[in-house]
Design a protein that fits this description.
Oligomer: single chain
Structural class: mainly alpha
């Protein structure tokens, strides 16, 4: 143990431990300061503001539970947005999970050119959302898009109007979301799959297990922790998603693609009802926290069962 340069004495174990602790906290401190200033303080302010009325031009007025009463009893847009958000999440999450895992299994095989295909599949995730959205909407343009052109060539006289239709607008946005995100989750799954020993598959083959049995008994149990990690990320990202709708449909046609996050944005920055928007945001926060806690509780039970 070396001596202290200033005092010339050998530092004690407690002194060394204290010094290491201070060094560790010095690395953590910038992130904690950023979290406190840009996350914790806005959340607390939003919570307080949810019980107030404020348009950013006049003084803040305390209204108690009026925002929440109005939300649940008279705001039809809130219920439409909640229904759209649930639909958007319930469809997007399992489709993204299934496609990501399928692609990861495929890219984990010794295929020719798999590095190229991995890059192609991952590219939409790192590309600009604006660029990806423009390309996607051009593909599904109801009048001049190649997708409808192919459908008409196959004999479908009246193909869907896609984003211009109240029925097909949200499925079109779901397709865009899945296309952009599945490459990233494919890489996450691929990292998990590459940690599975090939000896397990060889032993299963010798025992006569087919491809489905190998997936059910080896692949799926090994990637279950990764699946829960991706599930949490997907659930949170879909519930708070608004940028895709803002770029593509602005919540339309009508309110067909208006989700809660976009409703919050419109209420706050278009209608200047910051208090009411904060109340909706608090409801969304409670929904996300509740779903996340349920997921973690279910994960512990499921992993202990495995």
């Amino acid at each position: 143990m070396g001596k202290d340069a200033k005092t010339g004495k050998t530092p004690s174990k407690d002194s060394l431990r204290r010094r290491k602790t201070l060094v560790a906290y010095s690395f953590i401190l910038p992130n904690l300061i950023g979290f406190f200033l840009f996350t914790f303080v806005p959340i607390v302010f939003s919570l307080l503001l949810s019980f107030c009325e404020w348009d950013s031009g006049n003084p803040i007025k305390f209204v108690g539970l009026e925002n929440f009463i109005y939300m649940f009893s008279r705001d039809n847009s809130f219920w439409i947005s909640l229904k759209n958000t649930i639909y958007y999440t319930v469809v997007t999450v399992p489709v993204t999970l299934a496609l990501s895992l399928f692609l990861a299994i495929l890219m984990n095989k010794p295929l020719k050119g798999r590095v190229f295909f991995r890059s192609v599949l991952f590219f939409p995730y790192v590309a600009s959302l604006v660029a990806i959205a423009v390309v996607w909407m051009a593909l599904f343009n109801p009048d001049r898009g190649p997708v409808n052109g192919v459908l008409m060539a196959l004999g479908i006289a009246n193909p869907p109007r896609w984003a211009a239709s109240t029925t097909w607008a949200l499925p079109t946005i779901i397709g865009l979301t899945v296309w952009k995100g599945m490459g990233y989750y494919m890489i996450v799954y691929l990292a998990a799959l590459q940690g599975v020993s090939r000896e397990l598959y060889e032993a299963a083959s010798l025992d006569g297990a087919n491809t489905w049995q190998q997936f059910k008994s080896i692949t799926w149990p090994c990637v279950t922790p990764t699946t829960f990690y991706i599930l949490v990320l997907l659930m949170v990202s879909t519930f708070k998603s608004y940028d895709t709708m803002y770029i593509t449909t602005q919540g339309g046609p009508g309110e067909a693609t208006k989700v809660l996050a976009y409703h919050i944005y419109n209420t706050a920055f278009v209608s200047s009802k910051f208090g009411y928007a904060s109340a909706i945001a608090m409801v969304l926060l409670v929904i996300i926290i509740t779903i996340t806690l349920i997921q973690f509780k279910f994960e512990k039970r499921f992993t202990s069962y495995l």
